[in-house]
Design goal:
CATH superfamily of the largest domain: Thiolase/Chalcone synthase
Structural class: alpha+beta
Shape: globular
CATH architecture of the largest domain: 3-Layer(aba) Sandwich
Number of domains: 2
Number of helices: 10
Helix content: 25-40%
Distance between the termini: 20 Å
Strand content: 25-35%
CATH topology of the largest domain: Peroxisomal Thiolase, Chain A, domain 1
Bound molecules: oxa(dethia)-CoA
Order of helices and strands: EEHHEHEHEHEHEEEEEEHEHHHEE
Largest sheet: 5 strands, mixed
Radius of gyration: 19 Å
């Protein structure tokens, strides 16, 4: 009998400090950087983001989201036999944030734990990898997390990027099942666009060489994103044999409301079918899709049996999608 993976539970966590656009604009003004709530809302749909306290790491945010997902799935930590964390803001250069999370969850069964680095597509990549491992029989209960503290890598003198991002974590528990589950996935990267969205610095000889803060050519990313999100959605739907009309919900990467609505239009999906959390979360990179999924599941919007299309796009350039029957 064919083996599938199903999402058995979701979780999400935002650090308590909510920073509104007005609060951020006032803070930036003190540094001589000019922005406004009006500009940010009109261009992005963002009203606020959450920033973690200085001593809080990605694994701490991941721990909260993971515990919620485990509770929702009715799964004990020691039943987990695979942990994948998608992050571009890991606790350390190494070991992985997934290994640190395993320890914080008190899991002592020796399960595999590793990070996936695909920036804002990270959770889509991580979920596709976990699904493949479950289908192959190498895991039965996987914990897949997207967790970020992007506030650490923001350049607060660059108004074109620092108003966009926030911190948070989202998680799912994926379980082996005789019925689907994850119906299809589609992953891509194009390394020729490395420079469009990157943190170019690296550690060498005990120092950081190069710039350790986020750089983005927003307009170029915007144009690429809209095209690839439509393509990957069609590829995933074709693999699954599901039509656009049969999609109940689109849960896109939460970077910009204009990108999300434009993608929905190209897929002939009405705005009511798009889960939007960017207003309150900002862009939380790899955490954005699982956080949005969790919000919609907990609000009772996404219901069992519905078809949910998840999409990610970001640095690399990377992009991808997954179709999930909840
Ligand atoms: O997560 C990975 C994927 N990332 C994305 O998907 C992000 C994709 N890109 C975007 O979402 C948009 O390109 C941005 C939100 C980053 C920028 O929006 P835009 O409509 O492309 O604005 P723009 O870059 O064309 O800038 C328009 C104007 C410029 O002024 P001039 O040259 O027209 O005088 C900017 O200097 O807005 C100015 N500007 C700002 N003004 C106030 C840029 N940032 C700000 C700001 N506040 N924070």
């Amino acid at each position: 009998m064919r083996r599938y993976s199903r999402i058995a539970g979701t979780g999400g966590y935002l650090p308590p400090r909510r920073v509104s656009n007005d609060e951020l604009a006032a803070e930036l003004a003190r540094r001589g950087v000019e922005t406004s709530d009006t500009w940010i809302v009109e261009r992005t749909g963002i009203h606020a983001r959450h920033f973690a306290a200085p001593d809080v790491a990605s694994s701490d945010l991941a721990l909260h989201a993971a515990r919620q997902a485990l509770d929702a799935a009715g799964t004990a930590p020691d039943e987990i036999d695979l942990i994948i964390v998608a992050t571009s803001t890991p606790d350390m250069v190494f070991p992985s944030t997934a290994a640190i999370l395993q320890h914080k969850l008190g899991i002592t069964n020796g399960c595999a734990a590793f990070d996936v680095q695909a920036v804002c597509s990270g959770f889509i990549y991580a979920l596709a990898v976990a699904d493949a491992m479950v289908q192959a029989g190498s895991a039965r209960s996987a914990l897949v997390v997207g967790s970020e503290v992007f506030s650490r890598i923001l350049d607060f003198s660059d108004r074109t990027t620092c108003v966009l991002f926030g911190d948070g974590a989202g998680a799912v528990v994926l379980k082996a099942s005789e019925t689907p589950g994850i119906l299809a996935s589609d992953l891509h990267a194009d390394g020729q666009h490395v420079g469009l969205l990157c943190v170019p610095g690296h550690v060498s000889g005990g120092a950081i060489l190069g710039d350790p803060l986020l750089k983005m050519d927003g307009q170029a990313v915007f144009k690429l994103a809209v095209g690839v999100l439509e393509k990957t959605a069609h590829a995933t739907l074709a693999k699954a044999g599901v039509t656009e009309a049969e999609v109940d919900w689109l849960v896109p990467h939460q970077a910009n409301i204009r990108i999300m609505l434009s993608t929905a239009r190209r897929l002939h999906l009405p705005p009511e079918k798009v889960v939007v959390t960017v207003a309150e979360h900002g862009n939380t990179s790899a955490a954005s899709v699982p956080l949005a999924l969790d919000v919609a599941v907990r609000a009772g919007q996404i219901k069992p049996g519905q078809n949910v299309l998840l999409e990610g796009v970001g640095g690399g350039f990377t992009w991808g999608s997954l179709l999930v029957k909840m």
